[in-house]
Amino acid sequence: MAEIIGGITTSHIPAVGNAITDGLTQEHYWKRFFDGYKPVKAWLEEKQPDLVIVVYNDHGLNFFLDKVPTFAIGCADKYENADEGWGLKPTAPFDGDAPFSWHVAESLINQEFDMCTCQEMLVDHGFVNPMRVLFGDHEEWPIKAIPLAVNTVQHPLPSARRCFKLGQALKVAVESYPEDMKVVIAGTGGMSHQLQGERAGMINVDYDLACIESIINNPEWFADQSNSHIIEQAGTEGIETIMWMVMRGALGEKVNCLHKHYHAPISNTGAGVLLLEGAG
Ligand code: DHB
Ligand code: FE
């Protein structure tokens, strides 16, 4: 049977992609940020998962504002990347696993999450940068990857509670897949940032750290918060952090925290990294 062996969270800042391409990861500005991923990369190296489900938000590459699904899942065998305006050179395409995706989609829909199923899906920096940070650059990626997109762009957005419940349903979906497979769930985006308006550039370190603690030990605290409260505390784009709750829900009631890291600011964002393992 398929098994969820762990969960990862990471921000998905576009400038990170340029830092990798330009060989800047050990420069003073970037070093501490990238060093925060070392234990996660070592864990991935040791565990050799077969597949990662990347929970991210599309920023206008695959879905534009005229049509935005609340939750969408890729059901293809290949996902192409394209530059959506940050000047990032497109990466090699990612291998998916269409039969696995269809199983997950069917299970989620049976559990009352009415997913949009995408047999074609372009993936943007929200998906690609976490893959590059965690696995390096490849012409052939060493792991299968499934995009699961959450609308954090066009209101009304799903709540943190709804994302948490989606994660719980995702656990049931993955664990009912009959093939032996080691699966990792990556929740991307966040933490606090706002890219436009009067509060552009705001970061809320105390709130970010409280969210990290909640996601590890007390997800109910974050799940109880309204989107307007989260946006007040974390900024209009800080709402992306609700996607970490999908990862958290998929790990079960208790978790062991194998690694946590926080760095602010990087680009416009408070950036957090978590590596969690389900503990029953
Ligand atoms: C930044 C962060 C994001 O999550 C994003 O989608 C775009 C930009 C930033 O920090 O610059
Ligand atoms: Fe983003």
Question: What attributes characterize this protein structure?
Answer:
single chain; 280 residues; alpha/beta; Protocatechuate 4,5-dioxygenase, Chain B; 8-stranded mixed beta sheet; two-stranded antiparallel sheet; 35% helix; globular; binds 3,4-dihydroxybenzoic acid; binds fe (iii) ion
Description:
This protein is of the alpha/beta class. The chain has a single domain, classed as Protocatechuate 4,5-dioxygenase, Chain B. Helices cover 35% and strands 22% of the residues. The strands form two sheets. Strands 6-3-7-2-8-1-10-9 form an eight-stranded mixed β-sheet, with helices on both faces. The protein has a two-stranded antiparallel ribbon with strand order 4-5. The longest helix has 16 residues, at 160-175. It starts with a strand and ends with a strand. 3,4-dihydroxybenzoic acid is lined by residues 12-15, 59, 189, 193, 195, 237, 240, 267-269.
Q: Main β-sheet, in a few words?
A: 8 strands, mixed
Shape: globular
> Spans with pLDDT under 50 lasting ≥5 residues?
none
As for the CATH topology, it is Protocatechuate 4,5-dioxygenase, Chain B
CATH-scheme architecture: 3-Layer(aba) Sandwich
The SSE string, one letter per element, is: EHHHEEEEHEHEHEHHHHEE
Tally the helices: what do you get? 10
Small molecules in complex: 3,4-dihydroxybenzoic acid, fe (iii) ion
Helix/strand-derived category reads: alpha/beta
What is the helix fraction of residues, given as a range?
25-40%
Number of domains: 1
Strand content: 15-25%
Based on CA atoms alone, the radius of gyration comes out at 17 Å
Name the CATH superfamily classification: LigB-like
Mean pLDDT across all amino acids: 97
Instruction: Report the count of strand segments.
Output: 10
Report, as a whole number of angstroms, the end-to-end distance: 17 Å
Largest beta sheet: strand ordering: 6-3-7-2-8-1-10-9
Name of the CATH first level: Alpha Beta
